[in-house]
Amino acid sequence: MTNAAAVLLTAGLALAASAGPQVARDVSALAWMAGHWRGVDGGMEMEELWTAPAGGTLLGVHRDVKGGRTVSWEYLRIEQTPDGIVYQASPMGRAPTPFRLVESGERRAVFANPQHDFPKRILYWIAADGALHARVEGEAGKALEWRWGRAE
Questions:
Q1: Is residue 142 in a domain?
Q2: Alpha-carbon span 71 to 64, nearest angstrom
Q3: What is the model's pLDDT at position 133?
Q4: Helix (H) or strand (E) holding 130
Q5: Is there a domain that residue 6 lies in?
Q6: 61 pairs with which residues across the strands?
Q7: Other CB atoms within 10 Å distance of the CB of residue 106
Q8: How many other CB atoms are found less than 10 A from the CB of residue 140?
Q9: Residue 7 covered by a domain
Q10: Among 16, 33, 95, 149, which one is least packed by beta carbons within 10 Å?
Q11: Has residue 11 been placed in a domain?
């Protein structure tokens, strides 16, 4: 390899490393989240439903049922804005809290709002077995995680 080629290769690798994580610019990149997802953990029946991307949004709802009663629920919205993709969470009907998409891949999305008390990050991904996972993270290692399979 010539010195010029080595310099160009090194510069290219440095540029790629400094580029940071990939971030989708269009909500259609999150189409893998769409569907009806269900899971059970410790007697808690959990489900999350996401619409297919359309009109610059994905719309979602989450519900937890225990002992035959709904114990929590949440309206969710992922929207394309001029400043990027934003996840809006409205637990139990409260005003929405925004989380900006900061990283995305073929089957993974990370949203963050460092100013929020908890959570500060929301992660979604599809595992190798096809299950949808969601994880919320805060400070000092505080985290909660859910796992759902596709509802039939």
A1: yes
A2: 6
A3: 97
A4: none
A5: no
A6: 49, 75
A7: 9
A8: 5
A9: no
A10: 95
A11: no
Q: What is the pLDDT of residue 2?
A: 56
**CATH, residue 31:** 2.40.128.20
pTM confidence score = 0.85
Helix (H) / strand (E) element for 18: namely: helix 3-18
Only one residue has tokens 């569907």, namely: 35
Residue with token string 């409260």: 94
pLDDT value at residue 99: 98
| DSSP output for 20-88 | -S---SSGGGGGGG-EEEEEEETTEEEEEEEPPPBTTEEEEEEEEEETTEEEEEEEEEEEEETTEEEEE
pLDDT in tens, 94-143: 999 999 999 999 999 999 999 999 999 999 999 999 999 999 999 999 99
Residue type present at position 8 = L
Provide the number of structural domains found in the chain: 1
More confident site: 139 or 14: 139
3-state SS track over 70-102 = EEEEEEEEEEEECCEEEEEEEECCCCCEEEEEE
